[in-house]
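DM from R.C. (forwarded with permission)

"hey, sorry to bug you on a friday — could you get me a structure for this? deadline for the figure draft is monday and I only need the backbone to look sensible"
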Amino acid sequence: PLPSPSRAPAPATGPTAQPDQSAARADAPLPSSASRPSAAPEATSRQDQPSTPTVETSEAPAPWLLAGLAGGPVLAGSMWILLRQRHVAQLRHRRPGRTIATPPPALAPVEKTLATLGPATAPTVEHLDDALRRLASTRTRDGQAMPQLATVELGRTDITLHLSSAATLPSPWVDRGDRRAWALPAATDPRTLGELVPDQPAPYPLLVTIGTTDAGDPWLLNCEDHTLTLTGDPTYAADLARYIAAEVACNPWSAGTTVDCVGAAADIAPLNPDRVRPHTPNTDPAAQVLADAVNTIDRAADHDHDATTARAHIAGPDAWPARILFIDAPHTHTPSVEQLIDLMAAHPGATATSVVINGPRPATPGLVLELTPGGRVRLPHAGLDLVAVGLTSDEAQGCAALLAATHHLQDVAIPIDDDATDGWRAFTDEAGALREEHTLPRNTPATDVGEPPESLLDAADDEYLHAAATTQADLATLAPKVTHTVRDAVHDADPDLDADVAAWFADDCPLPRLTLLGPVRARTRGTPLIDRKPHMTEVLTYIATRPHGATPEDLADALGITLGKARDYAGIVRAWLGTNPRTGDNHLPDARQSPAAQASGVGTYQVLDLLVDADLFRRLRVRGQTRGPDGIHDLTTALRLVQGQPFDQRRPNGWAWLHEGDRLDHHLTAAIVDVAHTVTTHALHAGDHHQARLATETALLAAPEEEIPRLDLARIAKAQGRHAEAESILRNEVCNRSHDDGPPPDLSDRTLEVLEPRTWGRTSRSAS
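My reply, with the result:
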């Protein structure tokens, strides 16, 4: 039996106007879900929910915000976690001078939605996963069976487990009703929940969201050993089936689960091919699901446990994976499906299986979820009446295309601003590296160019290959030869660099400063902001990071605000920045008076004489690359600007614009790692182990998941004679490091080349 909720959902409110909240395919923008029925006057559809996370403005939700993810915070958080894991895999294959591939532009609405909602919802997902795993570890330690979980209520202040039968949970769980409802305050320190056993299996892998209260609190249903029949409105039923399948494909506690789809929800398969298997209607996956369920029943009987307890206790030599079958009602009248449904009803708690039927199927054992034309889901058995979660087919395809795109590990070239024709930007790519047309190969003799070209790393390649964790391709990319003509041209294009760097590090800098290489913050000399500083910092950053300025329309579109708000916010930032001491005018001139506006004839916001650490870093990098060995000083100065991961600690639910077009955050991260690797390579060759470690630790501060600085750190340890430390780094942080729940992935070609035994000796042999 399922319990009633501890509090009834708030009364439904009337529908509101909704923007086009469509997803996007990889090849073209997807249409809006026009086929979805409109909400009935007495109910609220999931698109109309005002309580889900949205962009923090006074405007309506941004048109790119996907309703299915906004209405389903658990899925948004889980997908964000999965997307981060995929990005780590990409970073591990990035080579110096390159950047990770980004999804096609048509998928920007999906990525922006996840980037907006995911950071706020992922911690809740991780907290729930951790709490349930720790509960499993504690019950295993004490030799107790796992509680029979029915539903989970994710409130604003606590997590509440609703049990099918009474049980006693240890403190800090609090009894909220006859030992059948146990609450855990959201602020609970996980360490108070008991020790977490390494690789503790998640006890409830088929825990999925079915809806939210009108206040936006998700309710999750434990589907294991249940047949769920989705009836009522067919569009909302199909969307709910799709959403449940997507959660099982992405939720961290569902790792190891197999999702079989016959018709229903098959379009979510590319979300996670490791878990999801689509089938055609003329196949019979239920036969294999049935066989696995029978095997699980027998194994559970051998251990005298239910499947959940056996899974939590890690009983026996094999794992206890779950399976869930999604199937359209017309395809359920086969012997294997009917036997499976009957078997689950006859052996509650023992099959580790669930069946989700899309469409009415009278007299089917299990639970019936009723979907109304107004977008609500009702579970009469438990007294639940919720706003249904769901994914449209377009949304599912967009989400699947985004995650499929991140499977590609091949890195790409860092882009160049073709419109930059003067100043330092005319010589660099977006990471501040000197453009290839201004460089020469490392083996170019002076007689071929008529003047002596120089390189940052001026010794022979073999010397660096012997001393450092680098490759010949790295040296060719990061330290090519440069002529004095190019050196002088770069210097002439940026004559104020030394003065700007000195001003940045000065205790009393006369100019405003914007920090992007770490936690984002702005230090200004104009009218102080009493509140809303994080929002205005985003406005300032958007304008400051547009090399050619931003029109009011650009600003409004990027922040999801009206044109009037964009002008108001620009005025606030103008006063905040104050007067430019170099000119006596505003740092942010009137849009009609900016240099960009004068050149184009279009009103453009442009910040003048604002010191931005990201720009200083790139300016130092390109100048250093032209000065031969003396340029190492510029690179070490650039590393002093780094305070953490680029664009860290941004305001919640903002900065969506950072996830479209050229990814400045990716380019800056690559720049920091590549500069640090260059400095480390130079320092190891010179025997300066302190400088090498300082540079490498700076790279790890900015890019903790990158492979390049981990290899550098191991090479530094070896150079210092700390062979055990070097072996440990290579074994645990490179060769055997896994960024997800799977085994360690294959090493990149560059990593394999660096680990060749020519310089590592016994270290590489031990680590391999």
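R.C.: lifesaver. DSSP finds 25 helices and 19 strands in the chain.
me: no worries. Confidence is low (pLDDT under 50) at residues 1-59, 762-768.
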